[in-house]
Design brief:
Elements lengths: L2 E5 L7 E8 L14 E3 L10 H11 L9 E5 L7 E6 L5 H14 L5 E5 L6 H14 L16 E5 L7 H22 L7 H12 L5 E6 L1 H7 L2 H7 L7 E7 L7 E6 L1 E5 L8 H4 L7 H15 L5 E11 L10 E4 L5 E4 L6 H16 L3 E6 L4 H6 L4 E5 L2 H14 L3 E3 L17 E2 L7 H10 L9 E5 L5 E2 L9 E2 L4 H10 L2
Parallel strand pairs: 1-7, 2-5, 2-6, 6-7, 10-12, 10-15, 11-12, 14-18, 15-19, 16-17
Antiparallel strand pairs: 2-3, 4-5, 8-9, 9-12, 13-14, 16-19, 20-21
Length: about 500
């Protein structure tokens, strides 16, 4: 990742970035706004004449100050050799995140840049800038001919650099864990078996003290009764796993369990998917990647909350040992499910993990993330997760954290009218009813496994925002790492 340093004085000045803001704050973040702009006063005075030159360029370049707007001016034979005018919008965290992302792409061919930050810049703004720079510069390549971006270092000029060091460190950890989730999700499934995923978690956890890791293989899963995970993984030569990671600081007062769907590839099983729907199914473990990365981030940041993550991992394949439509599955704890669609497999592995968490871990709060339904995108588009919970306070807290992190979710209803669709004539539950709204009925099914934690449970269907079709702001094409930033924000505020 980029090296980002808060400094009081530059030690090199090849490219200098100066912030530009709208003169009308109300128009500051509007894309395509026509409000006039001005150079924002900086905490550290730029080299002689630079500020005056930049101020004269702003109206000539017809800048609006919109967040992420960029104009570069060459200064041959002078220092700095390039002057970059960067729109910062209203100066809030989200505007600075957009500005940082735009700058990372615009300056990718530079080796080092220096950003003179405004005198009144807040820690939140510095966090947004740092995250934008680090996330937008992410690339995933599996080739020996890789040509990484030249940009290696960014210096932040501040009047009191030490006051922002912890902010930059937090943003750096958050970005590193988001990038880890992206790496795990982007990795092709020819490599990414359940055991490979478990090995990656073990490798990442080894660098962090006070983490406990448990990995259950097929034999342990069978002995303990994890029927859903075993059924979904039964058709693959690469057997299923259940990864459990526990961060338990001595001063923790609250115990949170995070659960993430971990289907390392989803063919749809015997209810096989069409090719267009199958080709990106390496991303069907994005929920597991997010919760694991968030837990590692909580440990790295030493957050004073106990976090236990469960990642049920399986490859849903077609073979003679694959589970069949119409099979009845016995989950952990004894509840049975009739399934007539083997492509609705994610909820089966989550059901085991939820039941195990309720019975054995007995947390205060229970959160699950899953690339669960295509209905998520139908209802809310490509950037927004569907959030379900019966706990208004928990839902509000998560939504606030998600918004602050620069991600998006919308609270959806748990319609009681749809519960009757879960009824089966031969089992306790019918896992994939054809009636009702798909994302809602999937959430209602999961709710059946939350026991006495039903009023402290929250489900995020994040299938749509887990993947980006192109570069946009801090997102790069491919896996987004959705949920890592939001969970870390939320966990930092848990009492």
């Amino acid at each position: 990742m980029l090296a980002i340093r808060p400094l009081a004085e530059p030690d090199r000045l090849d490219v200098l970035v100066l912030p530009v803001r709208p003169t009308d704050p109300a128009a500051g973040g509007a894309a395509g706004g026509d409000a006039p702009a001005e150079l924002a006063p900086t905490a550290v005075t730029p080299p002689d004449g630079t500020a005056e030159e930049a101020a004269a360029l702003v109206p000539v370049a017809r800048l609006s100050g919109r967040a992420g707007e960029i104009r570069t001016h060459l200064r041959p034979g002078r220092s700095p050799g390039r002057l970059v005018l960067l729109g910062i919008g209203d100066g809030g965290e989200s505007s600075w995140r957009a500005a940082g992302a735009a700058l990372a792409r615009s300056a990718a061919d530079e080796t080092q840049i220096t950003i003179a930050l405004p005198a009144e810049v807040t820690p939140d703004a510095v966090r947004g800038l740092t995250e934008g720079l680090l996330l937008a510069s992410y690339r995933f390549r599996l080739t020996d001919a890789d040509d990484p971006p030249a940009l290696a270092g960014v210096d932040l000029l501040l009047a009191d650099p030490t006051a922002y060091e912890s902010t930059v460190a937090t943003a750096r950890t958050t970005a590193a864990m988001t990038r880890l989730a992206r790496d795990l999700t982007n990795t092709p499934s020819s490599v990414k078996t359940p055991q490979w995923f478990a090995d990656q978690v073990a490798s990442a956890a080894a660098d962090l003290p006070d983490l406990r890791l448990t990995v259950r293989g097929p034999a342990e899963l069978a002995a303990e009764g994890f029927g859903g995970i075993l059924a979904v993984g039964g058709g693959s030569a690469s057997g299923p796993r259940l990864v459990e990671v526990d961060w338990h600081p001595a001063n923790a007062r609250t115990h949170v369990v995070l659960i993430g769907k971990g289907i390392t590839f989803d063919t749809g099983g015997i209810s096989i998917k069409p090719v267009p729907a199958m080709k990106l199914m390496r991303k069907d473990m994005a929920g597991a990647a997010a919760v694991v990365a968030a837990t590692l981030g909580a440990a790295a940041l030493r957050l004073p909350v106990r976090v236990t993550t469960l990642a049920p991992l399986a490859e849903n394949m077609v073979s003679g040992s694959a589970f069949r439509p119409g099979d009845v599955i016995r989950h952990y704890g004894g509840t049975t499910s009739e399934t007539t669609n083997s492509d609705a497999e994610g909820r089966l592995v989550l059901a085991d993990a939820l039941a195990y968490a309720v019975r054995q871990l007995k947390p205060d709060l229970l959160i699950d993330l899953a690339t669960l339904t295509g209905a998520n995108a139908v209802a809310l588009g490509k950037r927004t997760a569907a959030l379900y919970s019966e706990n208004d306070d928990l839902a509000a807290d998560l939504l606030n954290a998600i918004g602050a992190a620069g991600e998006a979710a919308w609270r959806m209803p748990l319609h009681t009218d749809y519960v009757e669709y879960l009824g089966s004539e031969i089992a306790d539950l019918y896992s994939a009813p054809a009636q009702g709204a798909g994302s809602v009925t999937a959430a209602l099914y999961l709710r059946e496994f939350t026991g006495d934690l039903r009023d402290r449970w929250l489900h995020l269907d994040m299938s749509a925002p887990s993947w980006a079709d192109g570069d946009q702001a801090e997102l790069t094409r491919g896996a987004t790492g959705w949920g890592v930033r939001s969970l870390l924000r939320w966990l930092a505020g848990v009492d």
